[in-house]
Specification:
The complex is a heterodimer of chains A (116) and B (115).
Chain A (H helix, E strand, L loop, with lengths): L2 E3 L4 E5 L4 E3 L2 E3 L5 E8 L6 E7 L7 E2 L2 E6 L4 E6 L8 E9 L8 E2 L3 E6 L1
Parallel strand pairs in A: 2-12
Antiparallel strand pairs in A: 1-4, 3-9, 5-6, 5-10, 7-8, 8-9, 10-11, 10-12
Chain B lengths: L3 E4 L2 E4 L4 E8 L5 E7 L6 E7 L2 E5 L6 E7 L2 E7 L7 E8 L10 E2 L3 E5 L1
Parallel strand pairs in B: 2-11
Antiparallel strand pairs in B: 1-3, 3-8, 4-5, 4-9, 5-6, 7-8, 9-10, 9-11
Classes of the chains: A mainly beta (116), B mainly beta (115).
């Protein structure tokens, strides 16, 4: 079974600053995917960024980027130029290749507050 | 995003009531899921449907009854619920997992309060 750990229950950052959310996972699989989801107060889980484990290059989506360290089983999310709209709970998720996406393993989440 | 829509967004029901939650996806996906999200608890997968067939039931009490009439619609029928069932119920969908990276896409959730 896979586990996903987000060690920071809460974080805060000043607007326009950069913040990094940590995520570690444990698996014996070699082929898998990792995701970060954002859940704002509206409660919809929004996919922020995805990473294939076989790709060494870190994924980037506009102000969001990841630092994927496969050997260390670490998958942190960096948010640059933080905006007030980034205030949300962020979930890290693991998905084994070839399985139903719904069976992804989610971390407990990190609540991020962006302060003006 | 409006690819996955859930109704109603808020529902208050008594313990003896019967109600249903509805989910509809417009993404052409063929797998759909129900999750329960409670405060201070991790996201809990309840049911998995692939091509309208239920492939997983994670020991969910029978007072929750899912229905998937087609690949685009998913229902969660509720009856004789308990106060501890109060939570946010999220629906999600995804493409065939055998076709590579296909993360779940979520709806906005249905807030359920059992009184």
């Amino acid at each position: 079974a896979q586990t996903v750990t987000q060690s920071q229950p809460e974080m805060s950052v000043q607007e326009a600053e950069t913040v990094t959310l940590s995520c570690t996972y444990d698996t014996s699989e070699s082929n898998y995917y990792l995701f970060w989801y954002k859940q704002p107060p509206s409660r919809q889980m929004i996919l922020v960024i995805r990473q294939e484990a076989y790709k060494q290059q870190n994924a980037t989506e506009n102000r969001f980027s990841v630092n994927f360290q496969k050997a260390a089983k670490s998958f942190s999310l960096k948010i640059s130029d933080s905006q007030l709209g980034d205030t949300a709970m962020y979930f890290c998720a693991f998905m084994k290749h070839g399985t139903n996406a719904g069976k992804s393993t989610f971390g407990d989440g990190t609540t991020l507050t962006v302060k003006p | 995003e409006t690819g996955v829509t859930q109704t109603p967004r808020h529902l208050v029901m008594g313990m003896t009531n019967k109600k249903s939650l509805k989910c509809e996806q417009h993404l052409g996906h063929n797998a759909m899921y129900w999750y329960k999200q409670s405060a201070k608890k991790p996201l809990e997968l309840m049911f998995v449907y692939n091509f309208k067939e239920q492939t997983e039931n994670n020991s969910v009490p029978s007072r929750f009854s899912p229905e998937c009439p087609n690949s685009s619609h998913l229902f969660l029928h509720l009856h004789t619920l308990q106060p501890e069932d109060s939570a946010l119920y999220l629906c999600a969908s995804s493409q065939d997992p055998r076709q590579g990276i296909n993360p779940p896409y979520f709806g906005e959730g249905s807030w359920l309060t059992v009184v």
